[in-house]
Amino acid sequence: MPTQQIVAPPARAAMFLVFTVNEGSEDEVRDFLSDVPGLTRTVSFRATGPNPSKDILTVVGLGAEMWDRLFAADRPRYLHTFDPIYGDKHTAPSTPGDLLIHLRAPQMDLCFELARIMTDKLAGHVTVVDEVHGFTYFDNRDLLGFVDGTENPEGNDADEAVHDNADTELYNGGSYVIVQKYTHDMQSWNAISTEEQERVIGRTKLDDVELDDDVKPTNSHVALNDVSDEDGNDLDIFRTNMPFGSIGSEEFGTYFIGYAADPSITEQMLDNMFLGNPVGNYDRILDFSTAITGTLFYVPSVGLLEEIDSLATGSPAGQQNDAQANESAAAPSDEPAVTADGSLGIGSLK
Ligand code: HEM
């Protein structure tokens, strides 16, 4: 299912669109959300014929304030507005965003076409507050020249890292995503030696090998982002960062996008980067990279997305916990219950 699929190999092209939703456009946006899987199929089918490509991926996320405007149902448990982080030297700002559309495809034309159709549908109801077109740079390198994405979890580990095993069945299988747009100061970066750059990242530049612990600085990017719980278990997120840029305006950037079952893991990494661990020992990548945006979104499962307008009513669908869901399965009621495939099993409400 190409809609709301998070874990995938690196795509050649990506688009990141962040919107705010105009007052009074809530109904139209709700309608749009349930159309997203169909719109994705449209472009996929046109591009590849009867075997629609599984490589055209759409993920839609919803901001916390938007959730409250669109739905009567409770917010998913970890959905909140992104908190800015003020380190001694560097800041992670929090910027507006009601809706995130993250598109990935083997070619930019497919992302662009899907983005065009989607924004057409939303015309008059939203404002695009950020738009980034990301490209693959050689062997999945960022514009600092380092391979980015190597230590992502794989297979089941990746699925577990991104999907929330929520106690509220409606939100089971959903995810949380934090996006940040960074620009790089290439002049300062290019002024330091390759060996120094490797100490900033914590890996070698040409062949992408992690530095040994005795030479890897504690303020390297890799050291500060390798986080674990109190029992020593690794805490993972899934990143699909993309380079972007503009030669004329000398903009060289990395669009950071990190999906997690629990966004506090990504927030812990950000605290390590911006405040430092211990405090003051901040991530040296920030001496060469400035965060310009920062927003947190909830990613509903595809089943919930297709039938999301059911959350708009005063119906307690979204507040239904497992016990209530079991009860409603035993004694039929008007309230929708979720089936094993994540669908609400209520068909279209239109
Ligand atoms: C690792 C680049 C921002 C989390 C890496 C690596 C590179 C990189 C080159 C090493 C290869 C890899 O494993 O992917 C960047 C750039 C960023 C950025 C250019 C923006 C300027 C972030 C942010 C977070 C993050 C904001 C988290 C909030 C991680 C994690 C790893 C990693 C978890 C793997 C650490 C490990 O080895 O266990 N990043 N990154 N990165 N990055 Fe970033």
From TrEMBL:
Limits of the Dyp-type peroxidase N-terminal domain: 4-135
GO cellular component: cytosol
Boundaries of every Dyp-type peroxidase C-terminal domain copy: 139-302
Biased composition (Polar residues): 313-327
Any one GO molecular-function label of the UniProt entry: metal ion binding
Cofactor requirement: heme b
UniProtKB keywords: Iron, Metal-binding, Oxidoreductase, Peroxidase
Region (Disordered): 313-350
Entry's family note: Belongs to the DyP-type peroxidase family.
Protein name: Putative deferrochelatase/peroxidase YfeX
Highest classification ranks of the organism: Bacteria, Bacillati, Actinomycetota, Actinomycetes, Mycobacteriales
